[in-house]
Amino acid sequence: MALYKATLMHGARDAEGVHMFEAPEDLMSQTPVRIMRTFMAWIDAHAGIGHVDFELNAAMKNKDGAVVTALGSLIFHETDEQPFI
User: Fold this and answer.
1) Total number of domains constituting the chain
2) First CA to last CA across the chain, in angstroms?
3) H/E element, 59
4) Dihedral, CA of residue 6, residue 8, residue 30 and residue 22, to nearest 10
5) pLDDT for 31-78, tens place per residue?
6) Could you tell me how far CA 49 lies from the centroid of its own chain?
7) Can you tell me the distance from the alpha carbon of 33 to that of 48, in angstroms, rounded to the nearest whole number?
8) Is residue 53 a contact partner of residue 75, using CB atoms and an 8 Å limit?
């Protein structure tokens, strides 16, 4: 397992969080969507706020494949949707 860093910013909660998470060594060789799924599964399991779902509108990796930028909506408690980057 390798350690990765993610910065998540989202809407009405005025939240910006830096999260360190463990994932397979080859995570960054995956598609941006798979990388986001892995990170969001970690958030769901470790955030301590109940189930967090998401809708992904766009995801891309930079040229060297080390940074993923994603845009979408976080869905809390099935009804509270907030945009995220």
Assistant:
1) 1
2) 25
3) strand 52-61
4) 40
5) 999 999 999 899 888 877 778 889 999 999 999 989 999 999 988 877
6) 15
7) 23
8) yes
